[in-house]
């Protein structure tokens, strides 16, 4: 994936999620998953659009079993939006760019009030 999307591991997951002062969108995916491949370019677009205002990450569930299990990932792709280290929203399956952006924007607006 491109430079604007951060690849997470079990070792880096907690630190990235809990140390971020901006919303973090995590894509739980696997290389063999066709829908995961379909959403990858959308996530890249969001990462470019929100470069300084949100962090876009992905976690390969084939390699990071512990983090996937911690969040009950049973289907992929699953996207979880975190704010302040807590789950704000979760999507299972393909999700539209519009819906993901709306959720990020909502969190960003909450942070300015």
- As a percent range, the share of helical residues equals 40-55%
What string gives the helices and strands in order? EHEHEHEEH
Please compute the radius of gyration using only Cα atoms.
13 Å
The count of strands amounts to 5
- The total tally of domains equals 1
Strand adjacency order, main sheet: 1-3-2-4-5
Structural class, please? alpha/beta
Shape: globular
Low-confidence stretches: none
CATH topology call: Glutaredoxin
Describe the structure.
- By secondary structure, this protein is α/β, with parallel strands linked by helices.
- The protein has one domain (5-111): 3-Layer(aba) Sandwich (Glutaredoxin).
- The protein has 4 helices and 5 strands.
- It has a 5-stranded mixed beta sheet with strand order 1-3-2-4-5, sandwiched between helices.
- The termini are far apart.
Short précis:
With 113 residues, the protein is an alpha/beta fold.
């Amino acid at each position: 994936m491109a430079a604007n999307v951060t690849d997470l591991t079990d070792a880096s997951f907690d630190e990235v999620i809990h140390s971020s002062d901006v919303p973090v969108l995590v894509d739980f995916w696997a290389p063999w998953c066709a829908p995961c491949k379909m959403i990858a370019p959308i996530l890249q677009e969001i990462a470019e659009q929100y470069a300084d205002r949100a962090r876009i990450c992905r976690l390969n569930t084939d390699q990071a079993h512990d983090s996937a299990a911690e969040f009950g990932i049973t289907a992929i792709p699953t996207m979880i939006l975190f704010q302040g280290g807590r789950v704000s929203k979760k999507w299972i399956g393909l999700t539209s760019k519009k819906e993901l952006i709306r959720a990020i924007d909502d969190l960003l607006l909450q942070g300015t009030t």
